Target: Urease accessory protein UreH-like transmembrane domain-containing protein
Amino acid sequence: MLELFTGALLLSLLHATIPNHWAPVLAVARAEKWPLRRAVGVTAVAGLAHVLSTVGIGLALGLLGWQLSGRFARAAGWVGPGLLMGIGVLYAFSGRGHTHPDSSPVRLRRSRRRVVLGLAATMFLAPCLEIQTFFLGAGTHGPAALAGLMGVYLLASVSAMCALVALAHRGLGRLRLDGLARHERQLTGAVLVLVGVTGFFVDW
Model:
């Protein structure tokens, strides 16, 4: 179970650092000359919207994993790790990283509320699907494990996004993270495969 939480944490932090998760909010914040507190607050709202749509899918998959584990207890020990490895390999060779819809069409002359809602809606409509295998695996351990994994994903993703916007807003290091976007799928695939391999040697 520890490998699931560790893998989910790594994947959450990895995806949070991809610029398309937080750069749109930063761009609007700079254009509107928002103070740091407001920029971070809007990032938290957009990040929560993104996480909620992802967790909604994950909840369904986790409950499915819970039901399947009761029926196929013997297979649960190798099906979960096998899925992670298979999806990880496919993901690593599937091209460039996933993208979120461009938030630039949001008109900055609109009210602040509409801008925030537009950013939140953009993030909500583009859930991260890569984390879903972790939810499925956590579901085989029951509702408590699934809830814990969701908590890890929520806290890690939103906190990292807010921290990156805060650092970039202050101009610290100018945050050159574009290179991560080019290798996102390979890094994600590596995390999935690593957690899957570990699952074969420990109690899944």
